[in-house]
Structure formats: structure tokens, C-alpha cells
Amino acid sequence: MTTNAVTPAGTIYISKPKPDDEGQFIKFTPKQTEKILFVLHPSLLRYTGIYIFCILTFWMVIPLLLLLFMYYYNNTTKYIITNERIRIIKGLLVRKFIDLEFYKIKEISLIVPFHLKMFGLGTIDMITSDPLMPAISLEAIHKTVQIEELIRFLVAQIRKEKQIQEVDQYKYEKTP
């Protein structure tokens, strides 16, 4: 196409990207400050009720398929705790990656049900300020008290570093 030619309205021309010295078109440098602190897997004991149901109805095929599905689904779930965020990876056929930055965590609670307490397991529930995921749970994990304290410390540290302060806007009314 010559420079004197008239281009019709609505025509889009995209120039070819030029590679850098290394032959790469997109320059990406991973963040070097993020370090993995814990990689956790939930315990199979979180499905105790389903296991009891499958044992009681073992002569049927569907409970055995359910048992196999729960086993493989549990093995594909992973909780990665870094010094900046929590990443939850789960899914058997379709992988789902959930990233939660520490500064978005509002409340942390520790739940230790009886059937998990016997094995030293617990669940950490977190309420977040993220509208897409208002609550997240790390279910049936070991060392719940230490991990909860670590998350609390990291939330305070990240908020202090980034100078982030959470403000909830509630309307309070006086009762007569």
C-alpha cells in the first residue's frame, strides 16, 4: 500500500511487533520478592460423613464412584501460602485458581470440629473485602493455629507496608 492511497473509514492496520534483543515480544520479569511459605493439602477426613455413607451402602455402584471422585478431587486441591497472598488451586477436570491478597482479609476464624480435632486438623475461615469471594476456607489442614497466626501477622505487615486501612461503611441507627 502506498502512502498516497486513501484508506477507507473503519479500516484498522496493526503494525507488526518488533522483538527485543533476545527475540521475545513481551518482556515479563516475575516478582522476586514473593516467597512460598507453605504448600498445604486438605485431609481426606473432611469428607467423613460421605465415607460413612459409602461404607453403609457399599453394595451400590454410585457410592463407590462418589468415593473415587471425592478422593481425586481432594488430591487436586492445594493451598499455597506466600508472603503476599494465598493461592487456592482446585478442580478435577477444570482447574480453578483463586488468589487472595493479604490486605483484603478482614476477619480470620479458626474452627476445629471434634472429628478433625482427634487428628490435629482444623479449618481456617476468612472473611474478605473482595466482592467476588467474600469468604474463603482452608479446610482440614494441619498446624491450623500456627498458620492462622502467620496469616494474621502477614495481613498486618502487608497493610502497614502498603499503608492500607480498611473502612467499613455501615449506617447505624439509634434505637428509641
Quick synopsis:
Helix content is 27%, strand content 26%.
Structure description:
The protein is an alpha+beta fold and 176 residues long. The protein has one domain (36-162): Pleckstrin-homology domain (PH domain)/Phosphotyrosine-binding domain (PTB) (PH-domain like), CATH 2.30.29.30. The protein has four helices and seven strands, in the order βααββββαββα. It has helices at 48-56, 61-75, 114-117, 144-162, and strands spanning 36-40, 78-82, 85-90, 96-101, 105-111, 121-128, 135-142. The chain has a four-stranded antiparallel beta sheet with strand order 1-2-3-4. A three-stranded antiparallel beta sheet has the order 5-6-7, covered by helices on one side. The longest helix is centred in the C-terminal third of the chain and has 19 residues, at 144-162. The model has no long low-confidence stretch (mean pLDDT 82).
Annotate the secondary structure layout.
Layout: E1 36-40, H1 48-56, H2 61-75, E2 78-82, E3 85-90, E4 96-101, E5 105-111, H3 114-117, E6 121-128, E7 135-142, H4 144-162
Antiparallel strand pairs: 1-2, 2-3, 3-4, 5-6, 6-7
Helix pairs in contact: 1-2
Summarize this structure as a short list of keywords or feature phrases.
4 helices, four-stranded antiparallel sheet, 27% helix, three-stranded antiparallel sheet, 176 residues, 7 strands, extended, PH-domain like
